[in-house]
Amino acid sequence: MKRIVVLSGKGGTGKTSIVASLALAAAAEGGGLAAVDCDVDAPNLALLFGMGEGDFEEWKGIKASEKAAFDSEKCVHCGKCREICEFSAIEWDEGRRMPGIDRFLCEGCGACGIVCPPGAISIEKVENASIGWGRSKYGFPVATGQLKMGESSSGNVVAEVRKMADAVAGKEGAGHMLIDAAAGISCPVIASVTGTDYGLVVTEPTPPALRDAGRAISLLGHFGVPTGMVLNKWDLNPDFSEKVSEFAERNGVPVLSRIPYDKTFTKAVAKLVPAAELSSELKGMFSGIWEKIR
Amino acid sequence: MKVAVSSAGEGKGSRLSPVFGRCPFFVIVDTESGEEKSVKNTAAGQMGGAGMTAGQLVGNEGANAVVTMAMGPRAFAVLGQLGIEVYEGKEGTVEENLELLNKKMLRKMDEASGPLAPGAGGRPMGPGKQRGGRA
Amino acid sequence: MRIAVTGGKGGTGKSTVATALAVELGKRHEVVLADADVECPDDHLILSIERKGFADVKLPLPAFDFEKCIKCGKCASTCRYNAIVQVKGKYPIFDPGLCNGCGACMLVCPAGAISRGQRKVGEIFRGEGHGISLFSGEMEVGYEEASPVVNALKEKIPKSEFEIIDTAAGTHCNVISALRGCDYAVAVTEPTPFGAHDLELILRLAAVLGVPAGVVVNRSDLGETGEVNKIAEKHGAEVIAEIPYSKEMLESYSRGEPVAGKGILGIAEMLEAMLK
Known about the structure:
The complex is a heterotrimer.
Chain A: E1 2-7, H1 15-29, E2 33-37, H2 45-48, E3 56-62, E4 65-70, H3 80-84, E5 90-93, E6 98-101, H4 111-115, E7 121-126, E8 129-135, E9 141-147, H5 154-172, E10 176-180, H6 187-193, E11 198-203, H7 207-222, E12 227-232, H8 238-250, E13 255-259, H9 263-271, H10 280-293
Parallel strand pairs in A: 1-10, 1-11, 2-9, 2-10, 11-12, 12-13
Antiparallel strand pairs in A: 3-8, 4-7, 5-6, 8-9
Chain B: E1 2-7, E2 25-30, E3 36-40, H1 50-60, E4 65-68, H2 73-81, E5 85-88, H3 94-102, E6 107-108
Parallel strand pairs in B: 1-4, 4-5
Antiparallel strand pairs in B: 1-2, 2-3, 5-6
Helix pairs in contact in B: 1-2
Chain C: E1 2-6, H1 14-26, E2 31-35, H2 43-46, E3 52-64, H3 74-78, E4 84-85, E5 93-94, H4 104-108, E6 114-129, E7 132-139, H5 147-156, E8 162-166, H6 173-179, E9 184-189, H7 193-208, E10 213-218, H8 226-234, E11 238-243, H9 247-254, H10 262-275
Parallel strand pairs in C: 1-8, 1-9, 2-7, 2-8, 9-10, 10-11
Antiparallel strand pairs in C: 3-6, 4-5, 6-7
């Protein structure tokens, strides 16, 4: 199975819209596809396939985060835990002379547990997200996840979504997997990129998008993933688009397609369908991109 | 010498498993005595750093060489520091790969074969670090 | 007054609004703009401000003294991030890429062989232009955690009448770090199902963190604003501005010039009134 990850660095370049239309092209080929939304803070891919809560075959809470748990009865009020915490996650309750652990700041490292003389602090797994998969109306499965509000370890949640996607794709014998990564380049994106066979960087002709595409390209290079680029909304600034193409060329990244700014994308989002479904021109363009990366 | 082969199951008849850090088992064979042992890869279910832990596992088993198909940069660095050689296996059973190794028909890997395996990169990360991040 | 400009969904125009707002307020007040999107900071490009290195962001990193090491393996078994492995009879092997600087290994080493070293995980840059001071945080590529750089940035910016914090997209730890402790959050959204979905998430996050929030609907004429208005109302957040799509704004943006307009002025005036 070939795994293709789509990322951008900067948000709003059209990554999710492009993944959705590419998925249609892949599904049309008939080799079997699994789509995966790794943007677990704010997952939008399933929405764009018109999927709602009722479309999910499996949806479960997962414990992909660890936090310190405190047993107040054992406390000897020494305050060592608060001194040792590197993440300022322990506040001292002057009244009760006991620690209060901030679950948002706690990293679950266990240092407090190590120094606590009576062993009143232990590390426990906590539920920090829900993940699941469902079948889109186009026939292929879509795996996604949602981080619980304010929770952390999104990288681990992405890892769990990837595992679920692998299991589903394996059972169906899917020939390809399309992964929609989160914006940025930190741990949830890294967890989206590892173990993939091709990376598609989506960008647009603005200085911020170019800069961020550069960082996304570096990240893919760091992990040894062959890379290509899609330049979206290129006609909004043809001069800058030239600069982007030159940059890609200098870095050995082929520009697979230049997509013109098209209001069809906006209409498609409002209708909750992939843009390629509304325009035969776009459909052809995405088939072309798919041919090059499959 | 002792060879650890990443395996899909227990025993020499199992298929070679492609990824070092996340394979389900290691089959460890002493090429001189013929002694064979299968161990579960406890690193497989880890959130992150599976390559590191798998390296530690085969090191603790006394392996001098590893046969696998894909290995990320972390695992490769760990095995390098432990002086364990890595050979690129081929599709087939563990036993078939051991024979190829014996006939010196397997390529020695002199660098990591590629990116980290699926599921890697996950780490418990929080919003903290108010004391840590000093500028 | 510390104001976060955030949005959940990427590409709603968060940085456009943050930079435009900073420049507008900068005409009448002392303003610091902190670009807390440390994975991909863009504000210096949007405003064409040249940045200079200001400070490195460093995190603790264990340093191993193998002469003292007794090869007991306690460090390896204690590390919850699998950053240290140890084979019996050999020295431990450490991978800084997996280390988060918690110091647990230093605590358990019976031989005192692990001490507190440091490593650079990011940098803070500084620049001036358009009447404001820009502080830009940037995380090293390949390092996994953005929060330490965001926190260091917030600590380093000088106190100012207005401190505008431009957060990253999303709702995970780096955004939480940026939002924490702000007096107000401006949530920038767009009138689409994605915008609405993500607005819901960011307003809930702001509520959890105790930060009052207001909503700005960008490209307001390109879709139905009903949904986002409903969500704002549900969370007790005022819709402080609706900014219609403007090709001129987009072109200014792609030329690296600050964007302006009635919508931005409206937000600025509201915040100035709050300051009094």
